[in-house]
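The records we work with from here on pair a chain with its fold. These numbers are not coordinates but entries in a learned vocabulary of local backbone shapes. To see the layout at work, look at the sequence and tokens printed below.

. . .
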Amino acid sequence: MQRSLDVLCGFGVDIWMFNRNQWLMCSPDGEGVAQATHIIRDEPTIVADFAPYLAQTCKIVAASSDAPLLGRCEAAMHEAVGSVAITVRSDNYYLDLTAPGYNKGTFVIATARRLGVATEGVATIGDMQNDLSMFATSGISFAMGNASDAVKQHAKYVTAINRTTVLLRRSR
């Protein structure tokens, strides 16, 4: 994981780290923090150094509004970590890095087990590459109409396009 942090630092992207109980970052002033705080419904914990938390890390996120920069960062991460970690975009602005065994699919399995429900009885909804593991483990999967064709191919059903999302994205 330290190698991942070194690569991300080299690109100058904002870095967020997640463990089972905390959302960690070094600077609260980064791009997207306010929006993510609203979505996550939790405040990040500000730390001076990620090193003490590496052993408990489930996910590292690189955040940047510079999509081409994040694309170069993604390619560098694939090269740097190989099969030691899974690197996938969760949005145009976020690059997720997870250890094998930590993804939305494993979350679906764990949640279903905790609730005593068969995964075949679970429905999932998604629109990005990081949702594919969730589609693979649920009984019914829906891709949002705004998802890429590659994501839609993995879902059992596809919804209509969310016009609000399309309008918001066009206005940027």
